[in-house]
What we know:
The structure holds 2 protein chains of 2 kinds.
Chain A: H1 7-32, H2 48-55, E1 62-64, H3 70-75, H4 80-87, H5 121-135, E2 141-146, H6 153-164, E3 169-175, E4 178-179, E5 182-183, H7 184-187, H8 195-198, E6 204-208, H9 212-227, E7 233-238, H10 256-263, H11 267-278, H12 287-310
Helix pairs in contact in A: 1-11, 1-12, 2-9, 4-12, 5-6
Chain B: H1 8-15, E1 16-19, H2 21-35, E2 39-43, H3 59-63, E3 68-70, H4 75-87, E4 91-95, H5 106-113, H6 116-119, E5 129-134, H7 149-153, E6 159-162, H8 166-178, E7 183-188, E8 199-202, E9 214-217, E10 222-226, H9 231-243, E11 248-252, E12 255-257, H10 262-271, E13 274-281, H11 286-297, E14 307-311, H12 322-325, H13 329-340
Parallel strand pairs in B: 2-3, 2-4, 4-5, 5-7, 6-7, 10-11, 10-13, 13-14
Antiparallel strand pairs in B: 1-8, 6-12, 9-11
Helix pairs in contact in B: 2-8, 4-5, 9-13
Amino acid sequence: MTLTTEADRAKHALTTMWTIRRFEEAVDDMFARGLMHGTMHLSIGQEAVPTGACMALSEGDYITSTHRGHGHCIAKGAKLDAMMAELLAKETGYCRGRGGSMHIADVATGNLGANGIVAGGVPIAAGAGLAVRMRGGSEVVVSFFGDGAVNEGAWHEGVNLAAIWDLPVVFVCENNRYGMSMSVDRAFNVDTLAERARGYGIPGVTVDGNDPQTVYDAVADAVRRARSGGGPSFVEALTYRWKGHSKSDKNLYRTREEIESWRERDPIAAFEAAVTGGGATAPALSESDVEECRALARDRVREAIRTANAAPDADAATLTDAVYAPAGEPIAGGTRA
Amino acid sequence: MAAPAASPVDTQAANTQTMTIGKALNNGLRAAMEADPKVLVMGEDVGKLGGVFRVTDGLQKDFGEHRVLDTPLAESGIVGTAIGLAVRGFRPVCEIQFEGFIFPAFDQISSQLAKLRYRTQGKLKAPVVIRVPFGGGIGAVEHHSESPESLFSHIPGLKVVSCSNPVDAYWMMRQAISSDDPVMVFEPKKLYHSSALKAPVDTTATPDPLHSSRVVRHGDAATIAAYGPSLPVALDAATAAQEEGRSLEVIDLRTLSPLDLGPVFESVRRTGRLVVVSEASSEVSLTSEVAARVQQECFYSLEAPVQRVTGFDTPYPPAKLEEHFLPDLDRVLYAVDNALEW
């Protein structure tokens, strides 16, 4: 599948990337104006990875996500108003405003949850993959994580379990070059993180994470393998976050020049150039098509903000709800607790 | 000749076998696996070996490798994978080989398992059971004899129980697996194969609710509250005190989170004296919590400060010295004397 030559797919990819960017920009703005609380990890500059990866998935497939997870959520098909409501701590949010930015889960679209713990979702993805295999299903689980996760113990345990049990999991690393301030050059003694895959006996590739097409190709290949019983794979997507790690980040660990050089490799601008004839192939989209995608993304985000703002705030009176299962909830098989 | 129809008494006998705590846990797991195909057992050496303490003995043979999974040595991976299974509809039971090995999984337990329901307001649930052999008295060392149950009881979203006899062992296992909340079952490893504690287990009986404590011996001079491996010590102390004419009430706490202290309050209001026994270190522990809540609820009934008999506030000692560390008959009786002579 070529994203840049098929008009429908090109529009979908472009609209998704613009939606992620506009959503993140809106969050940045609302946070700066004191309208949003907590902390935010923005994925501006990384939009091509979730977009390309999720286009390789089918309905019924699952993802696990990270603290920088808004893009994964959007690319997997989440409702923007429920996402925005979650970030604004509204009762209409995906998790009634209790999960917040780092913990959106959307069961309907197979999003098993973002995660504030780096690598926390990796063994959970392996478990979801094991559940698929035990049921004889054909679904695939994509586990998103960053470069920092690849040095966490849970990552190694989860990847190894998926490998020895041939689980249908695709491990997608968004290598944005920094775990907060720790650069991959200082945190790893290997040239590419994909080399780690060899240690677990699974395929690993490193691709340009700023190009949705190359991300799509690598993930689609891994998904095919997983769906046909070939076990897990590791895809390392090289990308860059334009903003700081979180709201408190003053960017002391990287130069203005470095940030600027990556901004010049803007995944959205590059994709727009490619789909409108910048490449060797015939243009898939016209300038007005591109403008339409941009406008659609902008309008969707604006509408989400309007809807979310109008919703009731999370109610302190229910602060202690749902710590445990409700007493009357029916229990499958065996004796009631 | 046709066999005579079974009388009710025979039926009960057929459902009642005398067994150890270890066998009762094994039977509880087996019954849960028979009742629900979604129940899985996973952990280190739980398959052919049947676990280090043989609690999962025979389960892989009867239910297959797909339902009794031998895992690598990877506690974080075991619990994390169990969470993934549970959010997709399975009911995994993880065995942690020794309590000291649980800490690689602490992150998955405290950061994910305990918080998943609240974080998603019930959209996701993770009915995972984590079995933890705990406590000392088997001549082992640190990491093989410890009592970390207070650490887990402190975490909202987890439920924690501990059994002290075969009947509770069987039913707690069945009830924990049936619970829609994550439940940690702390199993007193030194009592697993105690023939002195063998008891008849009627698998057709109606068990007490999982999260309830129980008065196991009535008395009026003082109250002893204990759980798991400390319960037999408390009962021995009550027997010894009886010979001196002092009748002690003994309460098996059974559920450590949430605590069920109603029966303790009721007892202390009658006896005015409480001794809490646990192998765990005393500082910032379950025994602290019981003492705090009893002074709050029973202030005007107390005739003496709440006494605690616990392990020392040290790492677990070498095997040759563990008998000094663990609460024993003398230390419990000394505490009872203190309470009575205050």
